[in-house]
Here is the input.
Amino acid sequence: MDKIDNITVVELDGELDSNTAALVQDQLMTAASQTGKILLDMSKVTYMSSAGLRLLLLLYRQIREQVGNIAIVGLTEEVKDVMSITGFLDFFAIYDTRNAGLKAMR
Here is the structure.
């Protein structure tokens, strides 16, 4: 995790599934409770299961309760397709690059 201006940047790497989502959840929820702005860099996420989607939904709800802001950058086509089919793209601001996401959130 990095802090750029008042935005917490979290880079996820690998598969986001039932084996990894619980580990990531604790860190993301802690970060979400400490900041109003989170940028998820998912450019290195190769796979996302329903456990990953559930994690994103929990994070989205926590940030929105705080009247915060969350954005996702760097989605691979496979992960983007999963999010599109399930309607999750509607919940998040999506940007191609980290710089574009940071610029939009400032």
